[in-house]
């Protein structure tokens, strides 16, 4: 498997989706770019920032940024793959709610997600 484009030394950009936090949005789950560390929201989330980051940069792999998950998504093949451990932290803070961030998730959030 070609894992070119993964930088195991780059830390995550933060503990939540960079664009959602900057714009007052919210997310369901988080994904971490394996090349630059950008944290974006998953495709179930309203804004789908992790995929937007891939489209904008061409960075091929994203890793789950959820506790207990270590799988990667390969945007090129559209499949989950295994990969190396990245620089810490490996996941969002465990006390961070899902969906998140705390205080930004609307009460009808389940009607607003992509399935």
General description of the model:
The chain has 115 residues and is α+β, with helices and mostly antiparallel strands. It has helices at residues 18-23, 49-57; strands at 30-33, 39-41, 61-64, 72-74, 79-81. The chain has a single domain, classed as Zinc/RING finger domain, C3HC4 (zinc finger) (Herpes Virus-1), CATH 3.30.40. The protein has two helices and five strands, in the order H-E-E-H-E-E-E. It has a five-stranded antiparallel beta sheet with strand order 2-1-3-4-5. It is globular, with a radius of gyration of 13 Å. The termini are far apart. The model has no long low-confidence stretch (mean pLDDT 95).
- The CATH class name reads Alpha Beta
**Structural class by secondary-structure content:** alpha+beta
Which sheet architecture does the biggest sheet show?
A: 5 strands, antiparallel
Our count of helices gives: 2
- Contiguous low-pLDDT stretches (5 residues minimum) are none
Q: How does the overall form come out from the CA principal axes?
A: globular
Using the CA coordinates, give the radius of gyration. Answer: 13 Å
Strand order of the largest sheet: 2-1-3-4-5
Mean pLDDT: 95
Structural domains: how many: 1
Instruction: Identify the CATH architecture.
Output: 2-Layer Sandwich
CATH superfamily: Zinc/RING finger domain, C3HC4 (zinc finger)
Number of DSSP strands?
5
CATH topology, anyone? Herpes Virus-1
Task: Tell me the span between the first and last alpha carbons.
Answer: 29 Å
